[in-house]
Amino acid sequence: MPEGPSIVILKDLIRELHLGKPEVLEVAGNIKNFDKNRLLHQKVEDFKSWGKHFLICFENFTIRIHFMLFGSYLINARKKTPLKLGLIFKNDELNFYTCKADLLEGNVRKHYTWENDVMADEWNGDAAIKKLKENPQLMVCDVLLDQQIFSGVGNIIKNEVLYRTRIHPLTKIENLPTPKLRALVKEARHYSFDFLKWKKENTLSKHWEVYNQKECPLKHKVTKKELGKTHRQTYFCETCQKIYTEAKK
Prior knowledge:
With 249 residues, the chain is of the alpha+beta class. 24% of the residues lie in helices and 21% in strands.
């Protein structure tokens, strides 16, 4: 599943086409949950990203693309895979495959709060800390994947952030010392931008310290387990990452 930085890359690629506010001349695809003809001859107001969602904004509605586990896209190209949604403009076309597409009525800001998005200029770390403190019993391996707190953070970012901050994934929020809590929030955003840089360079996997690794950078064995309520695959170092077990004072 693409994480937030990958969706930012898609947004930037489309903006580099200098489309302006293009009119949709043709709509293709096997979308079933809304009338795709509603998009015909409508002008795109903007392309946005929120976490793992790609947003195509029109005057009175927005198309939300979620790539799920196996979604993909092509710009000015097509493939044999069944097309979920294709938008054809005067000089360019956008094609989305194996994804989920929904139509959101009204202004997009009725549906999203950008202060949750770790990649957004509006990101609010203090708001994230407040939400974490409201969920003291949750484990850090779960809260990092909560899209209402850290929208855009996925499993790769989760694992790497926990290693960078030296926090064991099974630590509960209520047991984290305040400096560690703040470090967790700060690093979620910091690593996301590192992810973006490395993804653009096509060097992301070369920088993984625990994700999909057998040893951490200090040559300790990396443990791989499905942890938390989400049961997501988690990579961590039992030596480097401390589990905090007593409530912070």
